[in-house]
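Protocol step 4 of 6.
Sequence for Pimeloyl-ACP methyl ester carboxylesterase (Streptosporangium canum) entered exactly as in the expression construct, tag removed. Do not edit the line below.
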Amino acid sequence: MNAPRSSPTPAPSSCKEAPTRSVSVRGVDFVYRQLGAEGDGVPLILLHHLAAVLDNWDPRVIDGLAARRRVITFDNRGVGASGGSTPDTIEAMARDAVLFIRALGFEQVDLLGLSMGGFIAQVIAAQEPQLVRKVILAGTGPAGGPGIDKITALTLQDTLKGFLTRKDPKQFLFFTDTEHGQREARAFLERLKERTDDRDKAISPRSFRAQLKAIRRWGLQPPADLTRIGQPVLVANGESDRMVPSENTLNLAARLPRGELVPLYPDAGHGGIFQYHDEFVTRALGFLES
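Step 5 output, structure tokens:
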């Protein structure tokens, strides 16, 4: 693995070809990929979902955003090929993400958090207001949001279903069970195979369990004080999210002081931004550049 200790230049324009690099964070190597526009613009840091590694981001979303932005995806502590042990609280994950961002030398960033990554993004935005300029939250909810504490049971149930049916659990967890939803699920899973070289390691069972514990703790916390998040925030989701019920999306948009809601994507679930990748990328870039 190519592993310099600083932010690389130049960056490729496609996540299929972006080299996997690493940076030392207090003696632990965090792996990441950088692509897209170079220069002094504010980079966009992506925070991914439960059990995800670098290869689980939809290439259409990454490449679409990277057409006009510098985009950085990374594996947080203990995830994929990153070293260390995965913490079992969202707050600790947020601290590690901040350390990673600062290790790359950035003084200000934008954040895109999906699902669990959206939990992490909320903590970073609230605790590091000078570091974060704008935030995009997708398929996520606030601490104590309805249904979030049930993600563990649902995930394990559909993981077993996937094993018994020889299908990827994301086909059930991320997409609706309609004909249209399942067609979109299959297309998404095919896109995830486009990168064939230098693929990331799968998440370990130990890290997966730590993430599940962190998510359950997030769901059982008292309702969050979202007034602490003063940055502009774009909120998106499908209308039928089974993992983080879509009412959480409406709740975020209403309670965030500068929240902006993308109309919920029809016949879409937790992976709504992947299913509607063209529309999402257009809206996200417009928000980031406004």
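Step 6, annotate. Residues 135 and 233 are 5 Å apart (CA to CA).
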